[in-house]
Amino acid sequence: MIHIHLSDEIRQRCPEFVGAAVFAAVSNTADSPTLWQEIGHFIADYRQRYTIDSLKLMPPIEATRTAYRRCGKDPSRYRPSAEALVRRTLQGKDLYHVNTLVDLINLASIAYGYSIGGFDADKIQGCTLNLGIGLEGEAYEGIGRGALNIAGLPVYRDALGGIGTPTSDHERTKLSIETTHLLAIVNGYDGNRTHVTACATFIQDLLRRYATSDGGQLIEF
After folding, report:
1. Fold topology of 3-220
2. Burial class of 145 by CB neighbour count within 10 A (0 to 12, 13 to 18, 19+)
3. What is the DSSP letter of 94?
4. CB under 8 Å to 77, separation ≥6 — which residues?
5. What is the mean pLDDT of residues 78-92?
6. What is the pTM of this model?
7. Which one of 57, 64, 100, 116 has the fewest CB atoms closer than 10 angstroms to its CB?
8. What is the pLDDT of residue 103?
9. Residue 181 in contact with residue 23, Cβ under 8 Å?
């Protein structure tokens, strides 16, 4: 079990923050046609109900942008992943096919508006993750992005350093076909515990249906 702690600096700048984590044994696949059918139906309905202008009306996304500003980052230059996914969807663009675990997390992120960290739990060093704020010059390799300036971004750190921000997770702990233990973290900067828990429960349901999992354990923090 990995323990998650909030630093004093996060508690001071983002006092509304609530989180939920799902720990689960999983079996990943390169692709799940049935999952992508569900994603396709969801996105078609989503585009009927929302437009780009709706972004400002989505509390989880706006709250994450506010958290960025409080921590010292411009959310328009370093978009939170949930906002980037929703924008892409509402612009009529297809979502990237990565692998089943990443794809189902992306679905949950769009459905609920939260930036969700998805990690290979076996690659996390130590038994504790601390949520703090990125420092100037702190080394960080974003997935598919190369070196990423995380100064002023909320960041989860394990014993070796940063592994996750709302903009991008780190290459070191990314989900792959070989992943057998998942840690998914829902970041609720809006303080809506009910909504955050519902998002985590949705992830558990998707894991049961598409990753031959029992849904794992849900921890609130």
Report:
1. Phenylalanyl-tRNA Synthetase; Chain B, domain 3 (3.50.40)
2. exposed
3. P
4. none
5. 97
6. 0.97
7. 57
8. 98
9. yes
